[in-house]
Amino acid sequence: MARAERSIAENRKARHDYFIEDVIETGIVLTGTEVKSLRLGRVNLRDSFARLIDGEMYLFNCHIAPYEFGNRWNHEPYRNRKLLLHRRQIRELGQMVKQKGLTLVPLRLYFDEHGRVKLALAVARGKKLFDKRESMASKDAARQIERTMKQRVK
């Protein structure tokens, strides 16, 4: 029987700072101590992003804490990590980023049903300050409507 997905980390700030246009599941190249540290949930995706370099996609600024029981072969916390995508996907993402001015932001890091580490990578457009205010106002309005509906039921 297959296991369900198990979430490791989520980048909540990305949904606040960006309009998410598309989400792509990617693999990620990790060392053994990085996987052990991920199993303990010691990762931060907050300021990380992906970029195309020499025909390959890399994840930058992703902090995976060094494994506590690691030895001299422990990993570097902020090293650039290669993302595993098909060549066609890399080409399409590169064109979207170059032409439309979009950015690649990680949304979620998780273990799939086979125990492999996967990354949900979003193709996103940055929000301006007024967009952020507008989305916060609409959330507040929805919350207020929900409260009044609950009070009417009682």
Concise description?
The chain has 154 residues and is of the alpha+beta class. The chain has four helices and nine strands; from the N terminus they run βαβαβββββαββα. It has a single domain, classed as Small Protein B, Chain: A (Beta Barrel).
Verbal overview:
The chain is α+β, with helices and mostly antiparallel strands. It has one domain (6-127): Small Protein B, Chain: A (Beta Barrel), CATH 2.40.280. Helix content is 34%, strand content 34%. It is built from 4 helices and 9 strands, in the order βαβαβββββαββα. The chain has helices spanning 12-17, 32-39, 87-100, 129-153; strands spanning 6-10, 18-28, 43-44, 49-53, 56-60, 63-64, 81-84, 103-111, 117-126. Strands 1-8-9-2-7-5-4 form a 7-stranded antiparallel beta sheet. It has a two-stranded antiparallel ribbon with strand order 3-6. The chain is globular and about 60 Å long.
If helices are DSSP runs of H or I spanning 4 or more residues, what is the number of helices? 4
- Overall residue-averaged pLDDT value: 87
CATH architecture: Beta Barrel
Low-confidence stretches: none
The strand order across the widest sheet is: 1-8-9-2-7-5-4
Q: Distance between the terminal alpha carbons, to the nearest Å?
A: 44 Å
Number of strands: 9
CATH topology: Small Protein B, Chain: A
Fold topology:
Layout: E1 6-10, H1 12-17, E2 18-28, H2 32-39, E3 43-44, E4 49-53, E5 56-60, E6 63-64, E7 81-84, H3 87-100, E8 103-111, E9 117-126, H4 129-153
Antiparallel strand pairs: 1-8, 2-7, 2-9, 3-6, 4-5, 5-7, 8-9
